[in-house]
């Protein structure tokens, strides 16, 4: 029962920091008590604490929490009108602006924002009790950031990896090929190529792979990737250059190790890989979840047919 | 950027995520860099394999300016930008210093010239020449101190028009002051304070008082005006001026104008020396324009300002040349880049607004001040730590008035240049607590001061002071 240890650590740390955190949270303005806050902190701590968290780590964790925003969010979730008013004043416009930035189009943005509002307000009920999404906010990030993230998640769920491709026409222009999922196995290139590539990728750090994926698969700009990681754009640019160069070398070496001559290896790499695109739709789904196809795509598929 | 072999893309796609999706809180904390190292690596590992979560993180990124405030500052990453701007500042100061040194010797003989520099703190410097347009000269100078004061008073109120006052969100201009001061001249008594580019420079304060010197010494015409259209706002200068000094430039400029013409003085100038630093400072540019528009606070750069042309212009660098020669034409390409043509449209060159945008920031222009932080508080922009990465710029609308150009595009990007595209400042219209973030689709500047910005969501933002303050309709 390792669960008991961390829980009591959480408890003790919470009790220790209760006064300070309570002062910071200013939850009194909503008429909420310290006990109420403590209960919330406890819940947050238990959720995020892992068995190995030391007391010092827990303390750092709690002190880094945005307790004031946490208090506001939870007060809203609990249905306190004064809290809700404050929330609306501060975040309503930002929410809409963020939705606009994400959806890039007015009506889609409004739709997105409204859906989120409904969730936040707690129009959903579960067993008769109002459930607000704000109850899942734990204060680890800023509330504004959390709102943006939730909006983004909602957007991605709805439009599933359309990324920048909003209209069907754009997608067609970009050269994506719409095909029905192929039942036949993908035409395989030399399996050694795939193996050597996997090997080369495996030795890369997670961050490198993430940058590669974001740039080459998602089509993110250097600036976006840099901001995602909190580094300077030039760092990402250099990193990508280095990675691209090294990958090629590594793959060639891997192929040579598998018995290919240098020439063969280079040819294999340069091979016209348009064939491989047949496999795109299949391997596009990195996630096992079934993609939600929008009507447009279904129609497109029907139209394109097996062509 | 080198490409990777296609097979790499294929294999990257084929990986499957090992860990469950982090929830919104964790992703937010990740983006804001407030996750402990251990958790951060776990999240990155997941992101390396999960395209959906990568999309979420990318979509949830705030506008770049806000990012600065929300991120837990990481010392490591701030050093380079800080260092970079520090070096630039040092460079500018060095060049300005050199320029100044070149000016000084020339001023020696013209001691009589009085150069007034209303540089912010010295706002009250009497000598605000002016007052007497044209004829003024000697006699008027005679009563320098007195008139100086009165004119200073007189000027003050009009100074208010000048918008230099710092308003939250207003941009900070270096007082284009200098111009008036200098030209005033004629007969100014007293060599007046040398054209001091650096208010806190080596000049003894006494020099500022020289107006009292007998007006009698009529400077044979202005020659002495050390007309230094000073506006050598060097980075450091600019900083102090912020907010201070309503440089009553406008009115003074008006007067100056007349006097200038009367004088035909030759600004001894170190104009060339000034050329250096001046070239880099927007204010300089505007100052010149100011002369032409004798309206209170008219700081426009009007290409049609030939009168000013007199010496002051000439000394002023390419800006001057720019205004007297061809004014470029502007357009926005279908792909969203800004282009300009100096030959009436026969050939076009791309103009990168980001090239010098940072430069202006270095001067403390900080036109992006007072953005509300994530918590809704107003915080002054950190001049040095402004956006690390330039956003992708897609421009859609451009409006030019002589050498003053406004260009706007996606995500509320709005740039302003006073020297026909040599230098740009990013402008963030702020009305109340709202920032303009929509895609700008139309820009109309009816004159130097009044403009209207329209966004794709049919928002209309109006300015009546050349972009310093805005109202959203």
In short:
Chain A is built from 15 helices and two strands.
Description:
The complex is a heterodimer of chains A (307) and B (473). Chain A has 307 residues and is mainly alpha-helical. Chain A has helices spanning 4-25, 34-48, 55-64, 67-77, 81-103, 106-121, 143-159, 168-173, 191-202, 206-217, 222-229, 233-257, 262-270, 280-284, 295-304, and strands at 124-126, 129-131. In chain A, a hairpin with a 2-residue loop joins β1 (124-126) and β2 (129-131). In chain A, α1 packs parallel to α3 (55-64) and α5 packs across α7 (143-159). In chain A, 34% of the residues are buried. Residues 163-167, 178-186 and 272-278 of chain A have low confidence and may be disordered. In chain B, β6 and β7 form a beta hairpin. In chain B, α3 (37-49) crosses α4 (51-59), α6 runs antiparallel to α12 (271-280) and α9 runs parallel beside α11. Chain B starts with 5 loop residues before the first helix and ends with a strand. The model of chain B is unreliable at 66-73, 110-197, 205-324 and 357-390 (pLDDT under 50). At the A-B interface, α3, α5, α7, α9 and α10 of A face α1, α2, α3, α4 and α5 of B.
Ordered list of secondary-structure elements with their pairings:
The complex is a heterodimer of chains A (307) and B (473).
Chain A: H1 4-25, H2 34-48, H3 55-64, H4 67-77, H5 81-103, H6 106-121, E1 124-126, E2 129-131, H7 143-159, H8 168-173, H9 191-202, H10 206-217, H11 222-229, H12 233-257, H13 262-270, H14 280-284, H15 295-304
Helix pairs in contact in A: 1-2, 1-3, 1-4, 4-5, 5-6, 5-7, 9-12, 11-12, 12-13
Chain B: H1 6-13, H2 24-31, H3 37-49, H4 51-59, H5 64-70, H6 75-107, H7 137-142, H8 144-161, H9 178-184, H10 235-241, H11 249-263, H12 271-280, H13 282-292, H14 311-315, H15 317-324, E1 329-332, E2 338-341, E3 349-351, H16 357-362, E4 371-372, E5 378-379, E6 395-401, E7 404-409, E8 414-417, E9 425-426, E10 430-431, E11 434-435, E12 440-445, E13 451-455, E14 460-463, E15 471-472
Antiparallel strand pairs in B: 1-2, 2-3, 4-5, 6-7, 7-8, 8-9, 10-11, 12-13, 13-14, 14-15
Helix pairs in contact in B: 3-4, 6-12, 8-11, 9-11, 11-13
């Amino acid at each position: 029962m390792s669960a008991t240890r961390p829980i009591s650590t959480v408890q003790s740390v919470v009790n220790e920091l209760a006064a300070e955190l309570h002062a910071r949270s200013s939850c009194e303005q909503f008429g909420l008590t310290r006990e109420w806050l403590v209960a919330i902190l406890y819940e947050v701590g238990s959720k995020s604490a892992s068995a190995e968290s030391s007391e010092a780590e827990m303390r750092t964790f709690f002190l880094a929490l945005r307790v004031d925003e946490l208090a506001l969010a939870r007060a809203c979730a609990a249905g306190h009108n004064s809290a809700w008013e404050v929330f609306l004043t501060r975040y309503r416009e930002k929410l809409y602006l963020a939705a606009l930035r994400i959806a890039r189009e007015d009506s889609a943005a409004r739709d997105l924002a409204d859906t989120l509002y409904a969730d936040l307000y707690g129009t959903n009920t579960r067993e008769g009790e109002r459930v607000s999404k704000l109850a899942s906010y734990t204060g680890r990030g800023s509330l504004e950031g959390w709102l943006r993230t939730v909006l983004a998640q909602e957007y991605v769920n709805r439009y599933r990896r359309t990324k920048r491709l909003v209209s069907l026409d754009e997608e067609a222009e970009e050269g994506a090929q719409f095909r029905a999922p192929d039942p036949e196995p993908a035409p395989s290139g030399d399996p050694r190529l795939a193996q050597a590539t996997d090997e080369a990728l495996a030795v890369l750090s997670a961050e490198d792979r993430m940058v590669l994926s974001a740039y080459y698969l998602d089509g993110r700009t250097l600036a976006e990737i840099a901001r995602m990681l909190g580094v300077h754009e030039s760092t990402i640019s250099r990193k990508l250059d280095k990675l691209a160069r090294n990958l090629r070398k590594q793959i060639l070496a891997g192929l040579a190790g598998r018995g290919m001559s240098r020439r063969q290896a280079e040819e294999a790499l340069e091979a016209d890989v348009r064939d491989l695109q047949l496999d795109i739709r299949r391997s596009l789904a990195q996630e096992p979840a079934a993609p939600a196809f929008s009507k447009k795509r279904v129609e497109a598929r029907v139209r394109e047919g097996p062509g | 950027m080198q490409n990777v072999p296609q097979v790499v893309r294929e294999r990257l796609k084929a990986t499957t995520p090992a860990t469950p999706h982090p929830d919104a809180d964790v992703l937010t904390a990740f983006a804001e860099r407030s996750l402990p190292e251990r958790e951060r690596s776990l999240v990155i590992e997941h992101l390396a394999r999960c395209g959906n979560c990568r999309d979420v993180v990318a979509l949830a990124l705030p506008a770049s300016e806000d990012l600065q405030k929300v991120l837990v500052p990481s010392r490591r990453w701030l050093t380079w930008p800080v260092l970079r701007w520090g070096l630039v500042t040092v460079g500018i100061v060095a060049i300005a210093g050199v320029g100044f040194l070149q000016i000084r010797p020339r001023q020696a003989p013209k001691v009589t010239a009085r150069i007034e520099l209303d540089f912010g703190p010295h706002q009250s410097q009497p000598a605000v020449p002016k007052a007497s347009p044209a004829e003024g000269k000697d006699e008027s100078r005679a009563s320098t101190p007195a008139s100086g004061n009165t004119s200073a008073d007189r000027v003050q109120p009009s100074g208010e028009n000048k918008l230099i006052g710092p308003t939250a969100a207003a941009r900070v201009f270096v007082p284009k002051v200098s111009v008036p001061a200098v030209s005033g001249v004629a007969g100014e008594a007293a060599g007046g304070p040398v054209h001091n580019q650096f208010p806190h420079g080596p000049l003894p304060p006494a020099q500022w008082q020289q107006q009292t010197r007998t007006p009698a010494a009529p400077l044979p015409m202005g020659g002495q005006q050390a007309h230094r259209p000073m506006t050598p706002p060097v980075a450091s200068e600019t900083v102090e001026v912020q907010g201070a000094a309503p440089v009553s430039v406008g009115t003074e400029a008006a007067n100056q104008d007349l006097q200038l013409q009367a004088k035909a003085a030759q600004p001894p100038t170190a104009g060339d020396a000034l050329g250096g630093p001046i070239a880099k400072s927007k204010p300089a540019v505007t100052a010149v324009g100011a002369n032409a528009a004798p309206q209170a606070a008219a700081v426009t750069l009007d290409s049609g300002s030939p009168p000013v042309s007199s010496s002051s212009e000439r000394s002023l660098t390419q800006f001057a040349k720019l205004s007297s020669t061809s004014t470029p034409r502007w357009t926005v390409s279908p792909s969203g880049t800004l282009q300009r043509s100096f030959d009436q449209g026969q050939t076009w060159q791309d103009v990168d607004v980001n090239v010098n945008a940072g430069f202006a920031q270095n001067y403390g222009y900080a036109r992006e001040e007072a953005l509300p932080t994530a918590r809704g508080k107003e915080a002054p922009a950190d001049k040095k730590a402004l956006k690390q990465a330039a956003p992708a710029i897609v421009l859609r609308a451009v409006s030019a008035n002589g050498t003053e150009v406004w260009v706007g595009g996606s995500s509320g990007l709005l740039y302003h240049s006073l020297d026909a595209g040599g230098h740009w400042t990013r402008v963030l219209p702020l009305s109340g607590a709202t920032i303009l973030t929509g895609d700008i689709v139309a820009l109309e500047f009816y004159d130097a001061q009044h403009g209207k910005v329209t966004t794709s969501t049919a928002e209309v933002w109006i300015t009546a002071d050349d972009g310093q303050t805005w109202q959203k309709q």
